[in-house]
Design brief:
The chain has one domain: q2cbj1_9rhob like domain (Jelly Rolls), CATH 2.60.120.620. The radius of gyration is 19 Å and the shape is globular. The chain has helices spanning 12-22, 33-49, 63-69, 79-82, 84-88, 94-103, 144-149, 189-192, 248-251, 254-257, 262-267, 292-295, 305-311, and strands at residues 5-6, 24-27, 73-76, 117-127, 157-163, 175-176, 200-201, 209-213, 218-219, 230-239, 286-287, 290-291. Strand 11 (286-287) and strand 12 form a beta hairpin. Strands 1-2-8-5-10-4-3 form a 7-stranded mixed beta sheet. Strands 7-6-9 form a 3-stranded antiparallel beta sheet, with no helix packed on it. It is α+β, with helices and mostly antiparallel strands. Helix 1 (12-22) crosses helix 6 (94-103). The structure holds 2-oxoglutaric acid (AKG) and fe (ii) ion. Residues 125, 134, 139, 174, 218-220, 232 line the site of 2-oxoglutaric acid (AKG). 2-oxoglutaric acid binds at residues 125, 134, 139, 174, 218-220, 232. Belongs to the PhyH family. This is Phytanoyl-CoA dioxygenase.
Length: 312
Amino acid sequence: MEIKRLSTADGAEAIVKAMEDDGMVIITDFITKDQIDRLNADLEPELAKMKAGKPDGMMDYYEEIDAAYGLNTKRLLDVPTFSKAFRDDIIEIEIMHQVSERVFKSMNGDDNPSNGYWLNSAQVIEIGPGNDAQALHRDQEMWPLWNDIGPNTPEAVINFFFAITPSTDLNGATRLVPGSHKWPKFESSLEKGILNHDTVPGELNPGECLLFSGKLLHGGGANRSQKDWRRCFSLSICRMGLMPEQAHCLLMPIDVADTMTYRGQAMHGFRSMWPTAHGRAGYYWTKDYEDVGQHIGLKDKPLYPEKAATTA
Ligand SMILES: O=C(O)CCC(=O)C(=O)O
Ligand SMILES: [Fe+2]
């Protein structure tokens, strides 16, 4: 099957509908060339310091993790802490927020305290030559309860997976199993080992984004090229009630967090929730039901800087 290709001009509603129908959709103009260049300038020195493969001693308790991590793959985590381009631009991409607001909206209407989303993880995945295909999995498996229940749940997590360098069938483009987000039963990839199913490659040009559901089976492809490294960025956004993979607000120094917008801070756990319920903090991740960001001493910020600027 052809993966549907939409642009931000098609709007969040059409993009969400395509993801719901097919489990995936390509957003053709997710990030500009200038944004990629600035992000890359932050990433280069960090990637140059890394060796490929899982860091020594990390997660030795699962053999499958070696394959999931990739023997000739660099996974650069904690990007928000060291990348100004990420904090200024990537976490502010409007179409990402418009899609996330729709996907994670409570079924009980607007301004409900169980609405909301935040950053699950932000990592570079650079697959090197000779790296095997990653086991197929659903990203929502990191909260196994979600898989146990099956397809009829609201989304736990969605991935805005964008390309920094060309991602091709030959150099390891993500493999996706069309329709697998609607299968009646979701098995665990760790229990059953590598699952073999017919896949399609999510080929991307730099700046394009493959948006996929947390229910869709997928995995990094094998890199069959001689010397091409496939550099992509996994921007994973989860429902606010779920604990993210990376503990961003414990990793990023508070003076660095202070440079972000209120919304950017909330994405990393420095504010109580986003979107706010009636401009209030909501019921969890608070200090005495008030916004935790005030309590830890972040500077006051308008909730919506653009609105503050136009009414000033
Ligand atoms: O690298 C890829 O193409 C996909 C990686 C992935 O799905 C993951 O690490 O969860
Ligand atoms: Fe994944």
